[in-house]
């Protein structure tokens, strides 16, 4: 157990998850907010190649991209709430 004297800083990230009706697809991607364009392009390519569907970048952004907060430097760490 380590003493944590710092406030937990968070950074904003973008997350996209493949949400087609195809079962078994676990495509999920998270990037920094600045990488929005790349995130959209990678997702569009994935959907086109893996699922044979054409989406515009705009559609992907509207329907699949979520903004999430992640702790700086602790992205692997699950935050537990205990009483
Ligand atoms: Zn997929």
Give a brief outline of the structure:
The chain has helices at residues 36-51, 57-64; strands at 10-17, 28-32, 65-71.
Structural notes for this entry:
This protein is an alpha+beta fold and 83 residues long. The protein has one domain: Ubiquitin-like (UB roll) (Roll), CATH 3.10.20. The chain is built from two helices and three strands, in the order ββααβ. Strands 2-1-3 form a three-stranded antiparallel β-sheet. Helix 1 packs across helix 2. The longest helix has 16 residues. The protein is elongated. It binds zinc ion.
Number of helical elements: 2
Helix content: 25-40%
CATH class: Alpha Beta
Proportion of strand residues: 15-25%
Please compute the radius of gyration using only Cα atoms. Answer: 16 Å
Low-confidence blocks of residues: none
Mean pLDDT equals: 82
Bound molecules: zinc ion
CATH-assigned fold name: Ubiquitin-like (UB roll)
CATH architecture: Roll
User: Strand count, sense and closure of the main sheet?
Assistant: 3 strands, antiparallel
- In whole angstroms, how far apart are the ends? 17 Å
Oligomer: single chain
Structural class: alpha+beta
Strand arrangement within the widest β-sheet reads 2-1-3
Question: How many strand units?
Answer: 3
Order of helices and strands: EEHHE
Count of the domains: 1
Shape: elongated
């Amino acid at each position: 157990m380590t003493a944590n004297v710092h406030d937990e800083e968070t950074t904003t990230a973008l997350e996209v998850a493949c949400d087609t009706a195809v079962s078994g697809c676990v495509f999920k991607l998270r990037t920094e907010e600045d990488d929005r364009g790349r995130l959209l392009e990678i997702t569009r390519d994935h959907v086109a190649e893996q699922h044979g569907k054409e989406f515009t970048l705009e559609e992907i952004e509207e329907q699949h991209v979520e903004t999430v907060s992640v702790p700086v430097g602790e992205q692997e760490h699950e935050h537990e709430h205990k009483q």
